[in-house]
Design brief:
Shape: globular
Radius of gyration: 21 Å
CATH class of the largest domain: Alpha Beta
Helix content: 40-55%
Number of strands: 8
CATH architecture of the largest domain: 3-Layer(aba) Sandwich
CATH topology of the largest domain: Rossmann fold
Number of domains: 2
Strand content: 5-15%
CATH superfamily of the largest domain: NAD(P)-binding Rossmann-like Domain
Structural class: alpha/beta
Number of helices: 13
Order of helices and strands: EHEHEHEHEHEEHEHHHHHHH
Strand order of the largest sheet: 3-2-1-4-5-6-7-8
Largest sheet: 8 strands, mixed
Length: about 280
């Protein structure tokens, strides 16, 4: 049965969800909520949403509310949304951290209507114009602390991701934050650092970007990601990000030492060890 859905935050993730949930028939009507008037107009002009409403009116008219704003804003909105959420409706979010969000509403009387989730997909672009069909197809979507949601709410969100053609994974919030810190948040931190390092060097050598190839572009692509989205993620998940940054720096120093000492054998072993990642990613 088709649902009336509200999307809070009409950026890449929220907009892409709206497109495919409408295309699949899961959503019969999509209401958009966004604080920026230009995003409201773009989402309407691009047929991402069917109408724009204020937050309270949108929530009260919805079967499902998807909160797709930066994680610091999600934590502020969740209680407000749950306060006015209709009895049989569901709220879910797409935040890249989960523990702090769950903690914020753990004692709310409507907690079981909330299903914390994280679709592991995206691009470096933002705003409604960045929305894409098929963004979540064959990508992992994580649902956290499933037992704390009602059976009905959980089934609704599972069906939603099935309509997005995502692969569902279930885990507790702490494990999610730790693992995502390793495979997603660290890579963004490295990309930002690399971009700043090259920009610093480029002040004295304008030829750098004339020589930039696909390898550099793919490595630094994540550095284009929005500060509004990623600063709160780093701040909320620093307990897991800082230890893995330490390990990364140790490995980078190890690489540097082998290179400094012309230790070809150790450097080759290091690279071959890194090559083992191919088998982890290609299964």
């Amino acid at each position: 049965m088709s649902k009336k859905i509200s999307i809070i935050g009409l950026g890449l993730i929220g907009g892409s969800m709206a497109l495919d949930l409408k295309k699949s028939g899961f959503a019969s009507h999509v209401i958009g909520v966004d604080k920026l008037e230009k995003h409201q107009k773009q989402a309407l002009n691009l047929s991402i949403v069917d109408e724009i409403l204020p937050l309270h009116e949108a929530v009260q008219k919805s079967d499902i509310v998807i909160v797709a704003v930066p994680v610091n804003a999600i934590s502020k909105l969740l209680s407000e949304i749950l306060d006015i959420l209709p009895e049989n409706a569901v709220v879910t979010d797409v935040g890249s951290t989960k523990s702090s969000l769950i903690e914020a509403v753990k004692n709310h009387p409507k907690r079981r209507q909330y299903v914390p989730a994280h679709p592991m997909s995206g691009t470096e672009n933002s705003g409604p114009a960045a929305a894409l069909h098929g963004l979540f197809r064959n990508k992992t979507a994580i649902i956290c602390n499933a037992a704390d949601a009602s059976k009905e709410a959980l089934e609704t969100v599972k069906t939603m991701y099935e309509n997005l053609e995502s692969k569902l994974v279930f885990m507790d919030a702490s494990s999610h934050d730790e693992h995502v810190g390793y495979v997603s948040h660290l890579s963004h931190a490295i990309s930002y650092a690399l971009a700043v390092a090259v920009l610093e060097k480029e002040k004295n050598d304008a030829a750098i970007f004339n020589l930039a190839s696909g390898g550099f572009s793919s490595t630094v692509r994540l550095a284009k990601s929005s500060v509004d989205m990623w600063l709160p993620i780093f701040e909320q998940n620093k307990a897991f990000i800082l230890p893995i940054i330490d390990i990364y720096l140790d490995k980078l120093k190890e690489f540097k030492t082998y290179l400094e000492h012309d230790d070809t054998e150790k450097l080759a072993e290091f690279i071959k060890e890194a090559n083992r990642i191919r088998g982890k990613l290609e299964h």
